[in-house]
Structures are given as C-alpha cells and as structure tokens.
Write a structure and sequence with these properties.
Helix content: over 70%
Mean pLDDT: 87
Distance between the termini: 33 Å
Strand content: under 5%
Shape: globular
Number of helices: 18
Order of helices and strands: EHHHEHHHHHHHHHHHHHHH
Low-confidence stretches: 37-42
Strand order of the largest sheet: 1-2
Radius of gyration: 21 Å
C-alpha cells in the first residue's frame, strides 16, 4: 500500500535544526539513564536527588517524545509504501534491536559465570540461568517491563508503530479532532494502555508528527514564539513537576496536578528545544559537534553498557559519597558519550560490516556529514 500526499517541505535550515535536535535528545537520554542507574545504587542526599530529578526526570524527559515526533515528520513528509518502509525500518530498527539485546544477554551469561563479576550487575538478568520461557520472551519484547537492554524499548516501539503507520494515518485523516482529543486526554492523565507493546506516549507523539505534516506546520513558525514566554512557562512547569513528585504526597488532586505539569512541560520543552536547535545548527563544521551528529545513534546504542560499567567502578573505588554521586552524575555521561563515539569510529573503520548491522547501515547514510 502506498501513501501519497502533497510534499511537506523542510528547508535546509530546518533539516540542520532536526540534526541538532537529534544530538540534544541523545545527550538527554544518556543523562536520563545516569540518574536512573544512580538511584538504584546510591541513596543520595536530598538536595542531590532534587538536582538529578530536575535535570533527568523533568528537563531531559522531552527527549524520547521528541524523537517520536521527528521520526513521524521524516516518514510522512514524503510518499512511501508500507512494504518499503517496513523493509527500511527492519534494517534500521529491528535488526539493531535484536542484535544489541542478544549481545547484552551473552554478556550476562558470561559474567554470571565469573565470580568477581557475578554480583556486579544487579539487573533483571541477575537470574538469567533460571529464566522461564516467558522470561526469555520478556527479555526481547519487554512485555512485563523493559527489554534486557532497557533503552532499546524505543527501537521496539518505533518499529511497531511504523508497522501501524498506514493505519494511523487513515485514522487521523478520518477522525482528526476525535483522535487527538482522545490521545491527549489519555496522555495528560498519564493513563497507560500498552497497544501491541507500545506506549500511549509513543503513539501520541508519533501522531503529533503526522498532524504537523498534515496541516503543514513548519518548524520555522515555532521560532516566532516568544523565547521569554516559553522559558517562563517551562521553568514554572518544571518546578511544579519536581515539587509535586518529590515533596507532595501522590494521591488524588496532587497526583493529577503533578502529572499535568509534567506532560505540559514536555510539550513546552520540545518547543523550546526546537528554538535552541536553530541556534545549534550553526555549529555544523565544528569537529566535536559533527562527531556527535554523525554518531548519535551509536551513542544511544552503546552508552548503557559503558555507563553501567563506569558508574559501578567509580562506586567500588570511591564509595557512595555525596560528592562522588554528584560528580559522577555530571561527568560520567560526558565520558561515556566520548567513549561511545570512539567505539563507533573504531567499529566503523575496523569492522564496517558489524558496525552496519548494529546501526542499520547508518555508516553509509552518514557519509559526507
């Protein structure tokens, strides 16, 4: 089945802004996982936990919804057939998803047999040798929780939602107001109903991407919105979100207010980040920025392993002290991003076939960048 539509035009400047958004979102994802991991290992002092929560669980939570939004825009902006799109997404999403989770499982199978390492990784794979059939299915599909390599849930959701992309377009074309109203209500009240293993959040922001294309909303139009107004709205929502989730008992109206502030903050945050991206795209040509842009998918794939290893090593050496927690939170993600880029460069040069499999042939797509 072929999807045809009038061309949605993306200017060169907007294209560069989208590349900048990918860099921003990728870095944010690393910081999200830096806090999640630290929370499991250390009992941070209260103010440190507040700082980390504000950055990782509030500000950076704009990243993944933003990725879904961009993915939908890039898909629907041009004509495509369901078959060709699925073939492309199998190479670019499904194969990396299966391979990375398989490598993570092999890693756990090996480390569990090494006494000095067996207790080092306290994850869902801790009892990997006792997994039931459902456990193995869950490791790959993440039905009960996340897949064994947690951050790859995004690849899973994005692949499945691409399988439904034609159906989703038909629903929106036929019931545009009803569909966005229904999704908005479900998303704002944070009522999660997994559909084919994908979350409402995934469907909501992928749908928003098509609405942008359908109604020809250009990214440049967002630049006209007052930066001061966005900054004030985002700051207020971020503070309310943090206060209600950390310091107010979560029940009834307080839970609703906290969830509402969080969801609205994500929408406002994405708008603000788009404005920021138009300034960052001017950095193209800078060696560091170009590497981050070229290897942003590799950073996304590889960072969890390096972050887990480095964080636990630092804790083992220096102990779970507040200063270690704070410095580790800010510094380790930067070190991990650099290490992920270096690993990607090494694989691309020495094992290009392996690199292409792991990244969905993004080596070829990125040539010339």
């Amino acid at each position: 089945m072929e999807i045809k539509r009038d061309m949605y035009s993306i200017s060169k400047e907007e294209s560069r802004a989208i590349n900048a958004l990918r860099v921003i979102f990728t870095i944010m994802v690393v910081y999200i996982h830096s806090h999640v991991g630290a929370e499991k290992i250390i009992n941070p002092t209260h103010w440190i936990n507040t700082v980390e929560y504000l950055i990782s669980e509030v500000v950076c939570r704009c990243a993944v919804p933003g990725f879904f939004l961009i993915s939908a825009i890039m898909l629907y902006k041009k004509d495509f057939t369901w078959k060709d799109n699925v073939k492309k997404k199998t190479r670019g999403l499904l194969i990396p998803y299966v391979l990375m989770n398989s490598l993570w499982i092999v890693f756990f199978l090996i480390t569990k047999k090494i006494p000095v390492l067996s207790g080092f990784f306290n994850t869902q794979a801790s009892d990997i040798y006792n997994w039931s059939i459902r456990g193995w299915i869950n490791a790959y599909l993440g039905i009960d929780s996340l897949p064994v390599l947690g951050q790859t849930w995004f690849l899973r959701d994005l692949f499945v939602i691409n399988l439904l992309s034609v159906l989703l377009k038909k629903i929106i074309d036929r019931l545009p107001i009803i569909w966005i109203s229904l999704l908005s209500i479900i998303w704002i009240i944070n009522f999660e109903i997994p559909v084919f293993c994908i979350s409402i959040r995934s469907i909501y922001f992928f749908s928003l991407g098509y609405y942008i294309v359908k109604y020809n909303v250009s990214m440049n139009s967002i630049r006209k919105i007052s930066t001061q107004m966005i900054a004030i709205a985002f700051s207020v929502l971020a503070v309310v979100d943090t206060v209600f989730h950390l310091y107010v008992e979560k029940q009834g109206i307080t839970l609703f207010v906290g969830n509402l502030a969080h969801q609205m903050m994500i929408l406002v945050g994405i708008i603000w980040l788009i404005k920021i991206a138009f300034n960052l795209q001017k950095l193209e040509g800078n060696a560091i920025y170009d590497k981050l842009m070229r290897y942003n998918f590799s950073i996304y794939l590889f960072h969890e392993f390096a972050l887990t290893i480095s964080r636990k090593t630092v804790i083992k050496i220096f102990g779970a002290k507040p200063v270690v927690q704070l410095l580790g939170y800010f510094v380790l993600p930067l070190v991990v991003i650099c290490a992920s880029v270096l690993l990607a460069i090494a694989l691309e040069k020495k094992l290009p076939a392996v690199y292409d499999l792991l990244t969905g042939k993004r080596s070829a797509l990125n040539k010339g960048k």
